[in-house]
Amino acid sequence: MSTEKDKMLDGQWFQDNEPWMVKQRALAGNVSTAYNQTMVEEKEKRNKLLQELLGHIGKNSFIANGVRFDYGCNIYIGDDVYINFNAVFLDGNEIHIGGRCLIGPGVLFATPSHPLVADERSKHTNQYGDYFPEKVEKIILEEDVWVGGNVTIMPGVTIGRGAVIGGGSVVNKDIPPYSLAVGNPCRVLRKITDKDRIGLF
After folding, report:
1. Do the domain assignments include residue 43?
2. C-alpha–C-alpha distance, residues 194 and 188, integer Å
3. Residue among 124, 58, 125, 41 at smallest CA distance from 97
4. Catalytic site residues?
5. How far apart are CA 175 and CA 183, in angstroms?
6. Structural domain total, the chain
7. Domain assignment of residue 107, given as a range
8. pLDDT 10s per residue in the chain (201 long)?
9. CATH number for the domain including 150?
10. Degrees (nearest 5) of the Cα angle 81, 83, 73?
């Protein structure tokens, strides 16, 4: 029989108050608080907190203060990733961030959704107490993606390798590789080509 955790990771509707979920969310909240109270120079302490909570954190990857993790254990970050201030990871399902991605300040990774009908969306009760019905879908950023500030990435989205997402966008559909995309909802403007090079290298 599937547990609520199984349903969660399988993208099915689930009840969000199974004891493991409650415990993991509390742990992630505590680690978020502890991490945000560290000094940038405390690299060893910061890395230990991330390594113990996250599914994976790659070499030379950096997360600025102000970060919030929901579960933490469903986040997989590649090498040489830079995540700026006040990132929020609602990681009921997996969030994958490929190597060399740049994440601007205030970016929200939102894997959850809730029922549209009000009486289904409202609080319910099971053997563990109160819960809210929820469904979570995986978010994937392939390698070399740049996400501008205050972007919201919605459930089930894949952003292709080398793509750039303009600040303030709401990404609710997949973005092809090497595309410049902006807006709410986010739309592809054009391909990124060699004409976009600035000539520094």
Report:
1. yes
2. 18
3. 58
4. 114
5. 12
6. 1
7. 4-196
8. 789 999 999 999 999 999 999 999 999 999 999 999 999 999 999 999 999 999 999 999 999 999 999 999 999 999 999 999 999 999 999 999 999 999 999 999 999 999 999 999 999 999 999 999 999 999 999 999 999 999 999 999 999 999 999 999 999 999 999 999 999 999 999 999 999 999 876
9. 2.160.10.10
10. 85
